## 1
Amino acid sequence: MKKIIKRHKLTFTRLYHSAKENDLGLTLVRQLSLDKHQLNRDRQVARKEGIYLDWPNSLFDGFLLMVPIFTKKTHCEIGYQVYASKAEIPEPYKCLWPTLAEPVQ
């Protein structure tokens, strides 16, 4: 453990100060930092390999249409493209937005 702290002292110090300034726990700040780095890696892979939207597996949860995003080369899921209204959706896929003529119970 001493070796790990010695090698990454600057990183732990930065995380500690960030946690103290924002009144958050050290583990939460560390997790946020890891999530940020994962997002950057996903963006880099998407830029390298290209992406496509998997429209047949889209999900509608009542207010939002979520379409999974996959890489073209490895077919790994990177995230979701979220559409908040029917006007945002491309023309061929507007049929995926259900009509809300009947009241929701």
## 2
Amino acid sequence: MPGFTWMDAIPLWAFFPLTVAVVHCVIELGYRLGRFRRDVTPDEKEAPVGAMSAAALGLLAFFLAFTFGFTGARFEERRSALIDEVNAIGTCFLRSQTLPPDQCARIQTGLRKYVEIRMNARTPETMWPAIQESEKIHDQLWAFALRAAETDRSAVTALFISSLNDVIDLHTKRVTFGLQGRLPGIVWLALVVVTVLSMGVLGYLEGLSRSRRSPALIAVVLTFSTILTLVADLDRPTEGTLRIGPQLMIDLGRKLQIENSAP
């Protein structure tokens, strides 16, 4: 499916426990390797390894800040695009009332169907079919608008066509932000590699310097796993706890139905 990466194969509910398990295993492997090196080469210095560990963790923190900022910005852009689209559809619906009654009825019926499709697209399985159906309705509405322009080239008709064009443009904007504006798979791969290497070096340093594992490692594992899970949640527009709800579109659909039943 367009816009989806290999990371989407991992269910979001399994992301946190899987990350905890992977990070813990990597630290444990590093710890065991560190203890082995300490027994084999007791003269190995901890200071250089500590400096390398600090550098690796600093790079990981920078990388996490970058990805968190990117996904957070995309989340806000998706929310802003939804608000703009709802306003554009409402404006287009109102301006359609300036057209002849038969044309107005067809256009408003199409807009109501369009809103219904948009507010029911809530899962990855329904997202792509909803996009395709929405684009079909765009073609139908644009054909109605061209017929209206052929019979009436007034400024009122031009305003309606402009508002319909805004609806189509904002659809493209939401698709871009929601499906194509996500973290690329190569960035996820780099993040995984940097995390594994950084945690491995941390465990190695722990093995060199201690005979027992520090309880603080548990906090490190949980902290990094939590941040990675938040990044994954923000990057998935159709699932998770941080997705943008369809309430604005639902409210618009109710409003359009009320106007349809008004005398």
## 3
Amino acid sequence: MLNQLRLDHANMARMLHVLQLKHKTLANGERPDFQLMREVVDYILSYMDGFATPLERICVERLKTQAPEHLPLMEQMANDYRELK
């Protein structure tokens, strides 16, 4: 499960890099591929809601029972996540 999350986060970093490059194109006064940008954003949002976020919740629930000493850190991470949304 952790390997899947690592892979997911690496793939997400690649997607964000694509968006960063397209933003740079726009900032340089050129026209980026807006369709590609939309598809990347749609993919990120649907994938995160449909797969990655539930998998992360499962990991957190396991951590709560197996490593309760880290509960304050898990709560801070959950708060950070809510602020990002």
## 4
Amino acid sequence: MGLHVLVEKPLDVTTARIDGLTAECDRAGVKLGVIYQDRAAPALVWLRQLIAGGGLGRPIVASARVRWYRPQEYYAGSHWRGTWGLDGGGAVMNQGIHTVDLLLWLLGDVDRVYATTRTALHDIAVEDTAVACLEFAGGAVATLEATTAAFPGLPRRVELTGSEGTIVVEQDRVVSVQLRTAPETPPPVDDARSGNASASSPVIADATGHARVLEAFVAAIRTGAAPLCDGRDGRKSVALVEAMYRSARTGAAVVLDEPEGVLDALER
């Protein structure tokens, strides 16, 4: 029996390496979890339950914007940031991955993706700007923007529209609910969380979300329940980012059921 494993996002920077880690944890009989603190945010848990219960109706369209800012010093001050081998990519794999996971968690699996990327502002080997169009298995479509070139850094914003209305998220708070039928309970207001620090700084000013994930992981170990995000679930966001990078490189849409890890095949 080995030790249970909890990993900061992403689980790893290629699906091939994730598969190896998952297999080792399975062999050892230990839990494998990923820190995606959106899954522990009260307002976002409320939103997921609302969508699952049909409160948004049939999901139709979504847009997610991660328009953050990082100065050149952010990359120059570390040997791993802004590299393919250690960072796994740029604005999508590092900053945007939380929102990739959020969209998958709320709307389900993606069938097909088309993406374009740019290195618009920084002297780095990877992208600092990306835009993608996502086609979900359930029929919804979404756009995703991720950049670290948007001075001074704006709050993350996610807009979700279904046949019953529209809900808007900023950071991890639900800021607008416009539905044909009012929900039975309003979204919780999380006074424990601070505002927009991550949009302009990599420093974690508020560890509330991390603490919630840690508490849930300990509870999963004690009770035998699944972590908030286990290894197989955490693989999905990296697989989608890999597909985005392949699409950007080839100029073509990518279908997500392709078996190979596409990031490993990129020419760098």
